[in-house]
Amino acid sequence: MRLIANQTGRLMNDEKLFIALYDEEKDEIDFVFDRRPVKEQSPRRAMRHGITEHVIKSKKPLFLHGDNKEMLVELNIRYSRYPAASWLGVPMMMGSHVLGVIAVQDYDDPNAFTDEHVVYLQSIANEAAIAVVNAQLYKELEYEKKYFESLVMNFPIAVIAVNYDYNITIFNPSAEKLFGYSRQEAIGSNIDDIVGDASSMDEVIELTKEIDENGRVHIITKRNNRNGIPFDVEILVVPIESDGKRIGNIGIYHDITELQKG
Known about the structure:
Number of strands: 11
Low-confidence stretches: none
Largest sheet: 6 strands, antiparallel
Shape: rod-shaped
Radius of gyration: 30 Å
Order of helices and strands: HEEEHEHEEHEEHHHHEEEH
CATH architecture of the largest domain: 2-Layer Sandwich
Number of helices: 9
CATH class of the largest domain: Alpha Beta
Distance between the termini: 63 Å
Helix content: 25-40%
Strand content: 25-35%
Structural class: alpha+beta
């Protein structure tokens, strides 16, 4: 947001600039960047009949200068007790959705801004909208990533993921317990070296070929842990895809030794 503010200041007075983001779901606005005096700054608030809200609702720039009280009344805007001599606000749009508002104001000079500034500020707002969307997407992806990692790490069954070269990228605590390798030892290692040994290597290689050909595997077989102790295991392997291309696989290794005994 500071970069956006600095860009605005190149061609206009931005001493009283603010950037407000609109939360459509909660119908609230959040003043995420504000250079106005502290007594004029606003916390996050519900939508009301303010001048910023008018820009959001109309989805159009608003340029006021000089004695604008009549226009404010006409637009049903409840103006601040600190009215600016010149006020310019533009919406940050992404398609038909309003993401927020960028506004500048001057308390002394009614001619501080011009129609050219409206065009310039709208151009900046368009760039800012893209930046806001990218930031939101990144935040959402980070949340989903952390959620997935938490789910996998706390899953009571062994989960192992590999990249396209079959080097391990995920090795949860249940996998550590089942195979006897620490996560630090497993990550980056070829999966055949971790889940297979001399007695099962031929089958492991065949399973790898089957995954390459069919994209998935579901079998019940036997494996040995690091110390050579055998166990019965149900293995389900499915592909990990991105943009329609397989970039790796994720497998679930369910120890069914006790079930087999029954």
